[in-house]
Structure formats: structure tokens, C-alpha cells
Amino acid sequence: MGCYHHHPHQHPTPHPIIMMIIDIHHHYFPPSLSAIKATQSQSVGFRTPPENLPWTVDSSLRAMDSLGIQLAILSVPAGVAETFDQAKGANELMYQIVQQHKNRFAFWACLGDWRDVKGKKKSALQLIPYVFDQLGAVGVAVSSSYGSGLDAKYIGDDLYESIWSELDARGAILFIHGTQTPSSTPIPHPTLGLPITEVPHETFKAAAQLVVSGKTRRFLRLDLVLAHMGGSTLALAPRVAGLARYMGASLSEDEILSEFRRYWWDVALSGSSASRGKQAITIKFRSLRSLTKILQSISFVAVSLNTIRWFDGDLEKAIKSTRQSWRAYAVQTF
């Protein structure tokens, strides 16, 4: 037998790249929510699969294994755990799950109701150092607005200035999800409840407000991720550019569109709408920077695995010409 000598004009076989499939949109239901989720879903015109209730760690692990997901980033659904104590408790429970199942879970922190910014000991602002410095959250899950009716304030409101400043100072990642805000008109059809028809528009309204209010320009250290491809943001961003400018926005049309490009786009339950993007990119979670990251997002526990697989297949067909798996996609548009 002879020895192998590397020829100087030959390239050695590269080491294989180990890919980690990360699901960034994976809901965690606290025990208090699991107990009432079926009824709560019905009240907003939706149905949580009975087989997913009550939520358990094992049910998530089974779903992850079935879909080839190595790590899921847990988040509390929008509108849940709004008081300081509820939010603190939810964060601690997610932290315990992460500690018990290392390398399978991480979590987006919940800060509760952002309108509570002035409390000295119990406020959304006070939770920020706790969730990052002590619990190790990868970022913060943010509702599109807090409060209801005339008392509601979208996240770009100046009331939240101190929260934005603290998060920006930390270079945080924010995962923005629309709230289940009811319309002033009835649900148009039993199959078209709030999660289907209203939540996407709430995400858009928050994203548009952050742009025209100048928040995306001021807080440049933040990474902003929009759930479900930003809802209706892709379709309405040009409308915002033209008409918000007409209505007196300080940014030009092109500047407004440029700011929309700052967002990252979560593809959960979005299917081929993700193919509108022009550039394939991989989300870079600073807290997970040692890993090779490929994006996947599925919105478990809200829907069944069969529904998730339909959206996956639709998206796979839409980007098939790229010769890459959809799992490598977070999409920047325009």
C-alpha cells in the first residue's frame, strides 16, 4: 500500500458543513393557556388542533423530529402573559424548558404589556436585563400593539421610547407578531377568523408605523423579524410609500421602501408568498452565532402537522428553480 500525497494543484475535499434547522416561530402555551385554549380559539374564529392540547414539551419534540428541526425558539402567543408577574413566570418556565432540553430549545422573551413602562420594580423595562442577562433569551417576542380599543398603542408609539432605547443598546432581535384585534365588522365567514384575516394586517400596521415614525432609522442596532412574512406588508408597502409621503411623512417614497428592506421575514404559514423576495438570506442570531443556521418556521402549536406540511410544500415548489431547500430562506423583498 502506498501513502496518499496531496497534489499541489488539487483541492482537498472540504469538510461537510453541518446544518442546523432552526424553527424561529414555535409557540409555547403556559399551563394556564393550554387549559382554555380551545375555548379562546373558538372566540376568535379559529380552531387549535385537539391533538396539540394541552401543550407539552414532548408534543413539540415529536413535531420537531417529524419535520427535521433540531432547535425551536419558543414564544408566548401575542396577547398572553401581559402582566409583569405573568410575563416573568412565562419566561422562567421557558428558561426551565431550555435547561432541561439543551440544544433543542431557545426562547424569545416576553416583556408583558409594554404600556407599563414607568413602574420602578414591575415594568416591561425592568424585565429586559432579567431575561437577557439572567435567563439568556435570544431576543424579544413583541405584539404589534398593546391595549384594546382607543387605549391601544402600536409599538412605534413614543410612549415606548425607553424600551426601544434599552433594546437598541443591547443590539436585540425583535420578533414582531400581529395581535388578534377584532374588526369593527363581523368575521366574514366561519373559516375566516381573526388569525387568518386580522392578524396579518396588525403585523403590517406595526411594521408601517415603525417605518414612517422613524423608529427603524433611529434604532439601527436592532434586528426586526416580522412573523408570517409580515402579513400584508409585502402587498401594502408600496402603498405606504406613495400615500404616507402624500400625507406628509418626512421620508421620501424611496426612503420608506428602503426602510421596509430592514425587516427580516419569517415564512411560517406563508407558502409561496415568500417567493416574492429577491434575495435569499439566512437569519444571523447573534446569541447563536456559533451555529450554521438555516431558517424554518412552522407556527406550531396553532395548526396541525398536515397543514404545516402543505405550506412547506407550496413554498418548496415556489422556489424550486433556485435549487435550494426552502429551509435556507428568510426573505428580504423589494
From TrEMBL:
The keyword Nucleotidyltransferase does not apply. It comes from the Eukaryota. GO terms for cellular component: cytosol. SUPFAM superfamilies: Metallo-dependent hydrolases. Residues 22-235 form the Amidohydrolase-related domain. Its EC number is 4.1.1.52. Belongs to the metallo-dependent hydrolases superfamily. ACMSD family. PANTHER family: 2-AMINO-3-CARBOXYLMUCONATE-6-SEMIALDEHYDE DECARBOXYLASE, AMIDOHYDROLASE-RELATED DOMAIN-CONTAINING PROTEIN. This is 6-methylsalicylate decarboxylase.
